[in-house]
Amino acid sequence: MQIKEILQTAEIGKEITVKGWVRTKRVSSNVVFININDGSVIHNIQAVAETGIIDEETLKLVTTGSCVAITGTLIESQGQGQKVELQVKSVFVYGTADPEKYPLQPKKHSLEFLREIAHLRPRTNTFSAILRVRHSLAFAINKYFNDNGFFYLHTPIITGSDAEGAGEMFRVSTLDPIKPPLNEDGSVNYKEDFFGKETNLTVSGQLEGELGAMALSKIYTFGPTFRAENSNTTRHLAEFWMIEPEVAFFELEDNMNLAEDFTKYVINYALTNCYDDLVFLENRLKEEEKNKKKEEQSELSLIEKLRFVVDNDYVRLTYTEAIKILLNSKRHKEGKFQYPVEWGIDLQSEHERYLVEKHFKKPVILTNYPKDIKAFYMKQDEDGKTVRAMDVLFPGIGEIIGGSQREDDYEKLLQRTKEVGIHEDTIWWYLETRKYGSAPHSGFGLGFERMVLFVTGMTNIRDVIPFPRTPKSAEF
Ligand code: 4AD
Ligand code: MG
């Protein structure tokens, strides 16, 4: 029986066996207290044994980090903080953990230190809570789409295209990297590669997702994506998970409605289904904030912040309107933005966060960006300058979603691929969908880890994925 079920059913008098990892052991004059956790919930179960019940040899092996099975009777707890406890009958030790060497001592460790022991950090309260929330969010995402008539489309990880056209791909090749076979003109002869052509890890499942939408009407992808962008920030990973719905007959406004409804649903799901973990994470944040200056402390607690997003409309405005707001801001006038503001710039995180956290104080959907700073596949507006793009910006995060209505006109799309230098032979299949039964359609990509960051209140993206991959770091 998992601890979650034991605590829920709380069947007093029942004999049960609890299996898990020892968090703490405390020996007093005539009793031993052992706290165990099995990761099913944030709470531990306390096992209590009178002296002599556990033999000396076994008791020595029961240390923080060891793995045990404890059999006993569930009784009402005498102590505070828990309703039930286990009156021990026997203890079996599966695996010991040398107390001199075990890195996770029962004390507060820094997040930086825990990143260095990513193989053990899921055993801490903080990371087990994050991993459970992550799981629930993934489940909620699948549930939302399933309940709304979307089909889960599995798009390839290895591809020959660059969906975002940004050249940030990790190459996949079976050729000798030092001495690859060469053509007569000195270029690499990819015909000898496993796939007979240049391939890379996908940066997005969107292009294939669009093919799915042109047949099944409503699809979504949910898989790993890879970016070789050298952004060493607290918001970027080289390997992250992305959710990409794509819908036939959707225009930009429908796309915005979907993004708002969908994000609210998954946040609300976490509020309902991960409440104990969120309370734990909220308290953790409160502890951290005690050390900060008053003006740096957040006005809302974690749970209040999540409720606020679920209960309020997102602000919608165009990129051009946002630029006006930024230009009129005191911060701009005092020259305090690191990157100067003018129409045409790619908004930086400082601009996005100003709009969301200082100006509107709610999530914002920005639309109709200049075409030169957006991907080739976005539908062009009539003004010839902007495209039907939309980015959703969240407090504390900045961009959490990027999406658009797609260009459905064959000639216009072909023209745009040429302008940005994408070779037709890498995406001829994508272009063909505009030749055969083209339809208006739209979609977006949600960065899964950014959503996990938002919901858990963590501040570094390395702390919301089990094994983060970032520049110069792929140890585990
Ligand atoms: O804005 P992006 O690059 O859009 C796309 O990839 C589109 N193909 C999506 C679509 O329309 N189907 O990425 C989408 C989201 C971003 O808003 C961000 O949340 C996340 O993916 N993201 C990252 N998350 C972590 N690390 C990175 N390096 C990320 N790059 C993007
Ligand atoms: Mg983007």
TrEMBL record:
PROSITE patterns cross-referenced by the UniProt entry: AA_TRNA_LIGASE_II (PS50862)
Ranges where the Aminoacyl-transfer RNA synthetases class-II family profile domain occurs: 131-466
Q: State any GO BP term from the record.
A: asparaginyl-tRNA aminoacylation
**Root EC class:** ligase
Keyword annotations from UniProtKB, A to Z: Aminoacyl-tRNA synthetase, ATP-binding, Coiled coil, Cytoplasm, Ligase, Nucleotide-binding, Protein biosynthesis
Q: Where is the signal peptide?
A: none
One of the record's GO cellular component terms:
cytoplasm
Q: Which CDD domains does the protein's record reference?
A: AsxRS_core, EcAsnRS_like_N
User: What stretch or stretches form a coiled coil here?
Assistant: 271-306
Q: Which reaction does it catalyse?
A: tRNA(Asn) + L-asparagine + ATP = L-asparaginyl-tRNA(Asn) + AMP + diphosphate + H(+)
Molecular function terms, GO-annotated = asparagine-tRNA ligase activity; ATP binding; nucleic acid binding
Where in the cell?
Cytoplasm
Q: Which InterPro entries match?
A: Aa-tRNA-synt_II, aa-tRNA-synth_II, aa-tRNA-synth_II/BPL/LPL, Asn-tRNA-ligase, Asp/Asn-tRNA-synth_IIb, NA-bd_OB-fold, NA-bd_OB_tRNA
- Name the Pfam families for this protein: tRNA-synt_2 (PF00152), tRNA_anti-codon (PF01336)
Give the primary localization class: cytoplasm
Q: Does the keyword Membrane apply?
A: no
Query: Which Enzyme Commission numbers does its entry carry?
Result: 6.1.1.22
Q: Which family does it belong to?
A: Belongs to the class-II aminoacyl-tRNA synthetase family.
> Record's NCBIfam families?
asnS, PRK03932.1
Subunit info here reads:
Homodimer.
Q: What is this protein called?
A: Asparagine--tRNA ligase
- Recorded source organism is Pseudarcicella hirudinis
